[in-house]
Write a structure and sequence with these properties.
homodimer, mainly alpha, 12 helices, disordered N terminus, DNA-binding
Chain lengths: ~240, ~240
DNA sequence: ACCTGAACACCGTTCAAGT
DNA sequence: ACCTGAACACCGTTCAAGT
């Protein structure tokens, strides 16, 4: 159902030779399949971004006619859905150690979540518009289970899950939209400096230049988990 | 620079009469201007969503040729940028009471932020791909100033701001993507129930049916603020 | 200074047809 | 069961031209 990670293999050099001799090498492509379509869509998205994914370009990359895709897939929307979910496959659920360190486990899960999306920057901008696929649901399930075992009361569970989810999504999306190239960022900060009467505080704190995203993510997550843990102490089983 | 809130006025009936007598009533349109373009773009986005905004349709609504727009605007991207920022205008900065209740002030700002975006659902899905406009920067500035006055040390300021921003963005975007129509949500939960061996925990907590988004947003925000306040107690001035 | 029509190089998708 | 080409109704944007 979900595409495996075959997408990354030798993309760079392939693209060069492609652009030099555009429509050559029919090299007996393997037959079309949903897996190949999704994997190639991810490749294309990685290379060209959201606007770069075109049914026609996708077909070309697959060595088939654009119309062939429509036998395997209802429409372009479905390609987006499948590509997004395929990128969010989670390798880790049936872990060995049911470590009693729930907080460490949660942090690990969420950092992996974020890392998966950052590996494919288009995924963050796509997610707001797409449905929740099976891999996303699996991650939510695992997160739920971990929190539940940690003693979070059922009544608080959904709030906890959505809070963490919101934070991860927001952090990932923000990084994609704020983390411009170095040049852009410097230009943005300079523009801010020019307008420093209007934005004195964020100019002074160099908000747009602060690019320790990983550290910031981790610290903010700790704040949130502090709040969660504290609430948990008050209202239910105090630990294990 | 930013469009005022003229967008909402009588849109519904306007659309009906439009679709009945498509290309009539030249009614001496006012001349094109950036303001009118942006306001009409917001109208169109509200009515038809992100994919509904087309340079050609926008021009039609404005009673002009598609090409006229390009005198006022570089390209479609710029229309998106301007429409997004115009929707995030913040009315409240020079408040009367410099209330010493920093936490209440922060909550109010963030709830308004979220509400502004929810009023225009396309804004959440647009933001990940767009630059930060002046109105967004104003909101960040005000948030910074409030936290700074509340005693957050300069070194912690950026982490605090990004944490809150991330949370608001994530919550807003999530609501847009998860909060389907009632029918869809029930269908999703049923699908989950059918697969309850695979997702037992989130099926049991009815994660996808829990639609008290406002309450959940507020509670999660409180967790985050608890964490921030606690950290603040430890590291710097303890209050005021 | 402001607006326009014709034209170009693209899109997603339907349909009727091929094997 | 799987794939295809021609065609339709759109796109954003360039360009040369109008007032």
């Amino acid at each position: 159902m979900a595409a495996k990670r075959s997408g990354a293999r030798g993309k760079r050099s392939e693209r060069i030779s492609e652009s030099l001799q555009p429509t050559q090498e029919p090299r007996s492509e393997p037959p079309l399949s949903l897996e190949r379509i999704v994997a190639t869509a991810v490749e294309l998205l990685d290379a060209q971004g959201v606007d770069g994914l075109t049914m026609r370009r996708l077909a070309e990359r697959l060595g088939s006619s654009p119309m062939s895709l429509y036998w395997h897939v209802d429409n372009k929307e479905e390609v987006f859905d499948l590509a997004l979910d395929s990128v969010l496959e989670y390798p880790g659920p049936p872990q060995i150690a049911e470590s009693r360190d729930w907080r460490g486990a949660v942090v690990h899960m969420l950092e992996d979540w974020r890392a998966s999306m950052l590996r494919h920057p288009w995924s963050a901008s796509l997610l707001p518009r797409r449905a929740l696929g099976p891999n996303i649901l699996s991650r939510l399930e695992l997160l739920s289970k971990t929190l539940s075992k940690a003693g979070v009361a059922d009544a608080d569970l959904n709030v906890a899950i959505w809070s963490l989810w919101n934070y991860v999504m927001g952090a990932t999306i923000t990084r994609g939209s704020v983390d411009l190239s170095d040049d852009d960022r410097v230009a943005a900060q300079q523009r801010l400096t020019r307008l420093s009467e209007r934005y004195p505080t964020i100019e002074r704190s160099r908000l747009l230049l602060d690019n320790d995203w990983d550290g910031t993510f981790r610290k903010g997550l700790d704040f949130l988990l502090d709040g969660l843990a504290r609430d948990n102490e008050h209202s239910s089983i105090p630990g294990r």
